Amino acid sequence: MTTYLISNVSVVGGEPTDLLIRDGVVVEVGAGLAAAGATVLDATGLVALPGLVDLHTHLREPGREDAETVESGSRAAALGGYTAVCAMANTSPVADTAGVVEQVWRLGREAGLVDVQPIGAVTVGLAGERLAELGAMADSAAGVQIFSDDGHCVADPRLMRRALEYVKAFDGVIAQHAEEPRLTEGAQMHEGEVSTRLGLTGWPAVAEEAIIARDVLLAEHVGSRLHVCHVSTAGSVEVLRQAKARGVRVTAEVTPHHLLLTDERAQTYDPVFKVNPPLRTAADIAALREALADGVIDVIATDHAPHAVEDKECEWAYARPGMLGLETALSIALDVFGPRWDLIAERMSRTPARIAGLDGHGLDPAPGVPANLTLVDPAARRVIEPAELASRSRNTPYARMTLPGRIVATFLRGEPTVLDGKAVK
Fold this sequence. Notes:
Urease, subunit C, domain 1; 2 domains; 5-stranded parallel sheet
C-alpha cells in the first residue's frame, strides 16, 4: 500500500498542515512532515474534508443498468468527494431480501470506489402491504441498518408502527418518503401559483407535512429511530423543530436541489426539473437553508436519481421524477453556504455516517483515523457539462451552470479513487 504525504492542506478550513497516510490510516498530522519513499501531493490552497457520505443514492442495479450501475454510480460518487453511499431499495428485483442487499453490497466491494451500504425495503416489493425481511437483511453480510420504501410512502400507520417497533430491537432506522398518496394523486409539481398558471395538477405541501407529523408521533410512542427523506417544505421544518424539542429520535435530510431550485423552473416544461417531492417556493428554500444551518435538518443527501434518456426526454406528464446529484452536491453546498467548512463536514459527512452506523467514515483527518477523505479546491469554478459526468444518465438540472469548487482527490482507506479530478480506475 502506497504511503502518501499531503502537504500544505487546510483540514476542515484550518491552518495549512501536512497529512501522512500509511497503511490506510492517517498516521501523523503536522507542519513540515517528511517520509522516505512517500508519494507527495502538494495541496496548497486545498481543503481536506472527511470523505462525504450520502444517505440517499439510487444506483439502479439490479434491473435498470441502462440508467446506472453500482460501478458507474460509485465512480460518480468518488468524483463528487464521497467515500460511502447508501443505496436505495427500489431496484428490480426490489432489495427486500438478504439475497438482493448482499448482491448490491458485493457489487460495491468489487467496484472498490466507495463503500456501498444497501438500504433495505420496509415492505415486500415496496407495495406497502406487509413487512419485508428486516431482520434477515440486518443479519446479512450487508448489515443493513436503514430501511426505506423511498419512492413510495409507508402510508398505513399500523404497518409503519410495526416497522418502527421491529427495527428498535437492533437500533435500526426507518427512512420515510413522506407523501400522503391520496393527496398527491395525479400531481405533477408543487401546488401553488405556478402550477395554477401552468394548468398542472399540484402536489400540496400538506401531503408531506401530514405524514411527518404522524410519523414523529409514532416514533415518539415507540421510542424508535425515524429518518425523514428529502424534506421540502417550511411546514415540515416546523413539525421537525417541535419534534426535536420534545426529544423524538428523528433525523432529516434535504437535497441540494431543494436548497437551490424553485418551482419556477417548471415553466419551461423541461422534465429535468421534475422531481419527487417537487421543487417548492423561494420561501420554502429559505426555511430549509435556515433549518440545515441550525441543525433541525441534519443532513444534505443527494437523492441521486439517474434515468435513461427515454424516461426523461419526453412530455412532462410521462417523465420519471428525479435528478442526478452525486457529482455536484458539494458545489451546491458551497454555492448556498459559502466556505463554511465545519458546517459542510457536519451535514455531508459526520452526521450521515453516524446515522448510517458507518464506522470509519465521517471522521476528520487525525492520527489513527482511517484515511477516508476528500481534497477540495474552493477557488475553482466549473461549468457542468452533462456529457462529462461519470453517471450513465444525463438528467442533471445544473447543465451548463457555473458552480464553485472542484474535487481534486478522494481517498478510500488510504488509496486514491480520484486524483487531479479524475477517477483512478
